[in-house]
């Protein structure tokens, strides 16, 4: 199935952009409401973290599951099912007054929302005409960046003027989009009906869950179970014919290096999203709404950068764009280190560079990685890529929070040390990418 370029540009991309934007928005809006949720339901910080952690766990491993199912079911049917689950979880969350059902609603939301970026990336890397892939991936990355930037501002407005419970209503705006997407997306001509590995999927979910719980909540028991469950998962995928993740993926050096690059760099930018609002609060003593205004230019510039990067990638190749994105990202980190605590306008300008660099990398790294795989492995490969994306983000956020707590949030030196770590990790990621890729292919 190859899609008509005009159909992609005028119908599919706008509809997918809207769904991706709202799914990302939903993922980050609740971060700003966590203190209010804890107060209202009288739960501890460790317990209320499940509002975020539970969502990330289901979202992370769900991206692999949807990508795996994309080989056996029509993409439009999978996207429809995901959006219905997303809306059902949102309705449950809005109507319930139970904390347990609230967590269940967030997990149900994540189970549906996970399919949106995973299947969109599969659509862009496999079915979109080759000369348009960079542009479509750029739009996806821009939409993700815009959602991440707008999310805290929108969450603050809704929770401040209405109630945090109204955050659950936002995804219901996608209900009409379900029918429009079903009409816009054609059926694939070829499907491979393979047995789905439910046991392997369960092991993957438990392994990812233990890792994120161990990092986010510093739970020792989860840290003990993580290597055991991971070993069981590796044994499982090596012992059956149709595993949820095929071990042959990792025999490709280029793919493995691309995934490692994602692991290194994605955590640094998620840490930036988490740390910068705290820096504006503690160093510049700003209220929430003013912080949002200072962060918004970074989100807007990131969205615009992704669009431009996608077009350049179609002409010059994704590897060139990824390298340029790394240089811009590292420049942003360096500027943050130099300007921390001096002037909020300088910090906001530094964030423009960092966010733009992240979006440029995100828009083209997927294209470079997808080129290292045979066509029949791209779906699974990009699912694992998305999984690593979110795991890296969760680890980066938790690590940044832990270091900030120990160093103290009121000193500029604390932020300089954290962003020096981001600079080092980003530099390692750039070196690994330059060693492994040339013009989007393995060198």
Account of the 3D structure:
This protein has a two-stranded antiparallel sheet with strand order 1-2. The chain has helices at 5-29, 34-41, 45-48, 50-69, 75-95, 99-113, 115-127, 133-161, 175-184, 198-217, 220-239, 253-284, 288-316, 318-339, 344-370, 378-407, 412-436, and strands at residues 437-438, 441-442. The longest helix has 32 residues, at 253-284. It is built from 17 helices and two strands. It starts with a helix and ends with a strand. The chain is mainly alpha-helical and 443 residues long. It has two domains: 1-196, MFS general substrate transporter like domains (Growth Hormone, Chain: A, Up-down Bundle); 249-443, MFS general substrate transporter like domains (Growth Hormone, Chain: A, Up-down Bundle).
- H/E order of the elements? HHHHHHHHHHHHHHHHHEE
**Major beta sheet, specifics?**
2 strands, antiparallel
CATH C-level class of the largest domain is Mainly Alpha
Q: What is the typical, i.e. mean, pLDDT?
A: 80
Strand content: under 5%
Return the domain count: 2
Q: Strand order, biggest sheet?
A: 1-2
Q: Could you give the distance between the termini?
A: 30 Å
